[in-house]
């Protein structure tokens, strides 16, 4: 898979109306060969200006949560379901989601992450293909074709305060990120015979092997 070619295509994408109002496409941050992928909803005002996902206060909180499990942005991939900012930060529309879906699919199939962290309602519903909101979905680990999916709150929601299950939203997120650390530290379960060579991102048949999102 030529992920650089797909990125170049995304950066000039005009497949939906969001191209008309964006400053720039927000492709990703961090390392697309990491075992961890953090997925949010869509760029906001600051992300649209800077071209980087999760900047500002929400991004700072995400960085702190990653640091608490001994990770930084160079050790995780950070992406959004939607690559362009919706006007007024409204929810993405179905045709916009359909237009952007191939780009997230390419990112995930290139990475083949061990752990996917979904931030907030939109990303969680999209990745798990469920109608269950984040308050119902979090606290569990979902398996999908070799990836463990850990839903948690969006950092912006945590910054607004509030409590969940008797603890602060931020502390609930800390628990979810601790789960990510445990999953990364767990011994790998061989999916192939021991004599078979390991296959990682960039292998010719990598997308076919994982194919998280066809």
Structural description of this entry:
The chain has helices at residues 3-11, 18-21, 45-50, 56-68, 94-111, 120-128, 134-137, 155-159, 169-185, 206-210; strands at 29-30, 36-40, 77-80, 115-119, 142-144, 147-152, 163-164, 167-168. The protein has 214 residues and is of the alpha/beta class. The strands form 2 sheets. A 6-stranded mixed beta sheet has the order 1-3-2-4-6-5, sandwiched between helices. Strands 7-8 form a two-stranded antiparallel ribbon. Mean pLDDT is 89; it is low at 192-210. Helices cover 42% and strands 14% of the residues. Strand 7 and strand 8 form a beta hairpin. The chain is built from 10 helices and 8 strands. It has a single domain, classed as Uracil-DNA Glycosylase, subunit E, CATH 3.40.470.10. The longest helix is centred in the middle third of the chain and has 18 residues, at 94-111. 41% of the residues are buried.
């Amino acid at each position: 898979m030529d992920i650089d070619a797909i990125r170049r295509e995304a950066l000039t994408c005009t497949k939906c109306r969001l191209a008309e109002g964006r400053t720039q496409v927000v492709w990703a941050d961090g390392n697309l060969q990491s075992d961890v992928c953090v997925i949010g909803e869509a760029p906001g005002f600051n992300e649209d200006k800077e071209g980087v996902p999760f900047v500002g206060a929400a991004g700072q909180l995400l960085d702190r949560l990653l640091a608490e499990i001994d990770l930084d942005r160079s050790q995780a991939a950070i992406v959004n379901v939607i690559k362009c900012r919706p006007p007024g930060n409204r929810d993405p529309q179905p045709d916009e989601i359909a237009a952007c879906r191939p780009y997230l699919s390419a990112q995930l199939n290139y990475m083949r992450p061990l752990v996917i962290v979904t931030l907030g309602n939109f990303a969680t519903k999209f990745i798990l293909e469920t109608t269950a909101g984040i308050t119902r979905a979090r606290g569990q680990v979902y398996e999908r074709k070799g990836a463990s999916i850990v839903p948690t709150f969006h950092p912006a929601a945590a910054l607004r305060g509030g409590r969940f299950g008797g603890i602060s939203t931020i502390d609930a997120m800390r628990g979810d990120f601790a789960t990510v650390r445990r999953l990364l530290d767990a011994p790998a379960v061989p999916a192939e015979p021991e004599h078979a060579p390991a296959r990682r991102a960039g292998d010719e048949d990598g997308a076919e092997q994982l194919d998280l999102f066809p």
